[in-house]
Write a structure and sequence with these properties.
The complex is a heterodimer of chains A (about 180) and B (about 325). With about 180 residues, chain A is of the alpha+beta class. Chain A contains six helices and five strands. Chain A is about 25% helix and about 15% strand. The longest helix of chain A is centred in the first third of the chain and has 14 residues, at about 25-35. Chain A starts with 17 loop residues before the first helix and ends with a helix. Chain B is of the alpha+beta class and about 325 residues long. Chain B folds into three domains: about 5-100, Ubiquitin-like (UB roll), CATH 3.10.20; about 105-130 and about 140-220, Alpha-Beta Plaits (2-Layer Sandwich), CATH 3.30.70.20; about 220-315, no CATH class. Classes of the chains: A alpha+beta (about 180), B alpha+beta (about 325). The interface between A and B is medium-sized, with 16 and 15 residues.
Chain lengths: ~180, ~325
C-alpha cells in the first residue's frame, strides 16, 4: 500500500562494504557528534539555585486568598471542583461558629480543601469558576516530593498568611481572569 | 374543546385550562413559573414571571388583551392566540420582573444549599441582568429555625406563598403564614412555634428558592456532587416514593421526586424525609432522570440507561 506521508524508508538487504563492515568510521562519526555537544550551551539549569524566567501570567501552585481584613475568601461553594477537568479538588464545608467572624468571610467556609497536585493540570479553570475571588494560580512552582501522599496539598499549604508580608500578589492573574484573556 | 395557539403552535385543551398548562402540554417554550404549583390550589398570580401577550382574545372577540396577562391564571378561549418567547415585549417584561425579584434577594448562591436546583437561579440566568440597579440596602432578616429540621432564610424568600399553601392544604392546621404586607412582609410561624406536622417538610420541596432548606443537609455537600436515585419503601403515612441523594455510599438527603416542571410528583412525610437515611431502609429503583443540561449531571460520566448494544446482549 502506498504510504500516506512518503517519509518511510525502504529497507534493503544489500551487502555491506569493507568500510562499513569495520564499523570504525561509524563509531568515530558518533563520537564526533557527542564531542560537539560538549561545547554547546546546556539545555538544563541547576534548579533551585538558578531559576528560569517565566511569563507574568505563569500558572503555578495555587493560593487561597484572604481579604483585606485577613478573612478567608473561600466559602466552599464547590464551583472550582466541578469546573476542574482533572477532578483534583475536593473539599468539606462547615458552618462558621460565633467568634470566628475574623477568620472566615461568609457563614460557610471550607474545613478541608485539598488539591491533588498529581492530578492538577494547571489549566486555571478553578480561578475562572471562583465567584469569591478566592483561588488563584501563582508563579510559584509546586514543590516536588518522593511520596505520593505529599502531593495532596491541604489548606496549610494553600491558604496565604494573614500578615501583609505573607500575602501573595496575584494582581496580574486577577486582571487576566477578569478580562477573560488566559 | 377550545383551540389555543401559543407561539404559532396550536393545541386543543379542555375548557378551563390555563395558558400555562396548555403551554406545558405543548412542551416547548413554556413560560417560567415561580409561584404557580399545579398541585396546590390557589397558587399562582403572584410572581408575574409567567406573563404572556394575548394577541387575539378568542374567535368570538378577536380583540387583543390590553396588557400582558399572567398565563398561570388566565384560562384559554377558543381561537385564542398567545405570544410567549416570540414577543419581545414579553421578554422585556419578564426581564423587568426578574430584576424586581432580585431586588432583595441576597444572591448568596455560593453558600445557599439550593444552588444548582434553584428556579430563581435558572430564571436570572435566562432573563436577568448581571448587575443590579438597586442602590438601597437589601432587607435582611435573622435566620429562623422552623422546627429542628427546617431552616428559614427569609432573606432569600420571594414571597411566592407556596409554603403557606402546603401548610394549608396538606396539613390539618396551619401553623405558619405571611406576616405584614408589601416590602416588609415575611414568612413566620405563630410566635416562632415549631411546625411539627408530619408533612411539613414538603415546604422545602415547594420552595422555588433557598428560603426553606433541609437542616439535616445544611452545608453537607453541593447538589452537583450528589447523585439522585429513585427509591421506595412501605410507608404508612405517605406514598413512600422518594429520591435519595447519594454522595458515594452515603444518603445525604431525601426529597420527593420532581417532575419536568420542578414540581413534586407526590408529597412525602417527614419520617421518610428526615429519619430514613440508610440504604437498607429503601428499595432502590434506579438513577433519577436528570436533565443533561442541569449542573447535577456534571461529571457523571455513567449512562442513566443501558446502551442498545448491551440490551441486545442481555436479551440473547
Amino acid at each position: 500500500m502506498q504510504s500516506l506521508t512518503n517519509r518511510s524508508k525502504v529497507v534493503s538487504n544489500k551487502h555491506l562494504s569493507l568500510a562499513e563492515r569495520l564499523y570504525l568510521p561509524a563509531i568515530f562519526g558518533g563520537l564526533r557528534i557527542t564531542f560537539k555537544h560538549m561545547f554547546k550551551k546546556k539545555a538544563t539549569i541547576s534548579y533551585p539555585e538558578e531559576q528560569r524566567d517565566h511569563g507574568r501570567l505563569y500558572r503555578g501552585q495555587h493560593v487561597l486568598k484572604r481579604d483585606e481584613q485577613g478573612r478567608e475568601n473561600c466559602t466552599a461553594c464547590g464551583l472550582c471542583a466541578v469546573a476542574c477537568p482533572a477532578e483534583a479538588i475536593t473539599m468539606v464545608a462547615g458552618e462558621r461558629k460565633k467568634g470566628e467572624e475574623h477568620l472566615y468571610r461568609e457563614e460557610k467556609y471550607a474545613i478541608e480543601y485539598n488539591i491533588n497536585m498529581l492530578r492538577c493540570i494547571f489549566c486555571g479553570l478553578c480561578e475562572e469558576a471562583c465567584p469569591k475571588d478566592a483561588i488563584y494560580l501563582t508563579d510559584r512552582i509546586a514543590e516536588s516530593n518522593y511520596q505520593r501522599g505529599q502531593f495532596i496539598f491541604t489548606k496549610d499549604k494553600l491558604v496565604e498568611g494573614i500578615d501583609k508580608s505573607d500575602r501573595i500578589d496575584v494582581s496580574d492573574r486577577r486582571k487576566a481572569v477578569r478580562k477573560g484573556a488566559m | 374543546m377550545p383551540k389555543v395557539t401559543i407561539d404559532d403552535i396550536t393545541i386543543e385543551v379542555p375548557a378551563g385550562t390555563t395558558i400555562l398548562e396548555a403551554a406545558r402540554q405543548i412542551g416547548v417554550n413554556v413560560p417560567p413559573a415561580m409561584c404557580y404549583y399545579s398541585k396546590l390550589k390557589g397558587s399562582g398570580g403572584k410572581c408575574r414571571v409567567c406573563l404572556v401577550k394575548v394577541t387575539k382574545g378568542s374567535d368570538k372577540d378577536p380583540r387583543p388583551m390590553p396588557k400582558l396577562v399572567a398565563s398561570c391564571r388566565t384560562t384559554v378561549m377558543d381561537g385564542m392566540e398567545v405570544r410567549n418567547v416570540t414577543s419581545p415585549e414579553v421578554i422585556e417584561a419578564r426581564r423587568g420582573v426578574v430584576e424586581f425579584l432580585l431586588v432583595n434577594h441576597p444572591l448568596d448562591c455560593p453558600i445557599c444549599d439550593q444552588a444548582g436546583e434553584c428556579h430563581l437561579q435558572d430564571l436570572s440566568y435566562d432573563h436577568g441582568l448581571s448587575k443590579s440597579r438597586y442602590d438601597f440596602e437589601r432587607r435582611t432578616f435573622e435566620r429562623i429555625d422552623i422546627g429542628d429540621k427546617i431552616q428559614l432564610h427569609m432573606n432569600r424568600c420571594i414571597l411566592c406563598y407556596r409554603c403557606t399553601q402546603v401548610a394549608e392544604q396538606l396539613t390539618p392546621e396551619r401553623k405558619h403564614g405571611v406576616l405584614y404586607r408589601g416590602e416588609v412582609s415575611e414568612i413566620s410561624t405563630f410566635i416562632a412555634t415549631a411546625v411539627d406536622n408530619e408533612f411539613s417538610g414538603n415546604m422545602i420541596d415547594v420552595c422555588p428558592v433557598g428560603a426553606l432548606t433541609d437542616k439535616t443537609f445544611r452545608f453537607k455537600s453541593r447538589v452537583w456532587f450528589t447523585k439522585p436515585m429513585y427509591a421506595h419503601r412501605n410507608c404508612p403515612t405517605c406514598s413512600g416514593k422518594v429520591a435519595l441523594w447519594y454522595q458515594g455510599e452515603e444518603v445525604l438527603r431525601v426529597t420527593s421526586r420532581k417532575d419536568k416542571w420542578g414540581e413534586s410528583e407526590g408529597f412525602i412525610c417527614n419520617e421518610c424525609r428526615f429519619d430514613k437515611k440508610n440504604t437498607s431502609d429503601w428499595t432502590i429503583e434506579g438513577p433519577a432522570p436528570v436533565d443533561r443540561h442541569s449542573v447535577i449531571s456534571q461529571n457523571h460520566y455513567e449512562l442513566p440507561y443501558e446502551l442498545p448494544v448491551n440490551q441486545k446482549k442481555l436479551s440473547n
